[in-house]
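This part of the workshop introduces the protein records we will be handling. Backbone structure tokens are a discrete shorthand for how the chain folds in space. Once this layout is familiar, the rest of the handout is easier to follow. The record below serves as our worked example for the rest of this section.
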Amino acid sequence: VQNYEGVCISRKNGAGIAGSFTVRKISFGEGVERVFPLHSTNIDSITVVRRGKVRRAKLYYLRARRGKSARIAEVTNYKPRTGTKA
């Protein structure tokens, strides 16, 4: 099992069987994006660590940003659910 933590920049096809989400992170100074199927048997669990305040459904504009401009304002009143499994 390998952890992959980053910013979820898109979700496609909702919660259906064909649903997927894209996660972006910076690895060794290089931007890396991975697309995960939502209902894959290879995924053990999905955990939301923090939530940010954005006004877009797709955050593709973060690809062109660097440094502080690539940060997302965090939602402070977010309380994660406990005991959930994807």
Remarks:
- Residues 7-70 form one domain.
- The chain is about 0% helix and 25% strand.
- The mean pLDDT is 90.
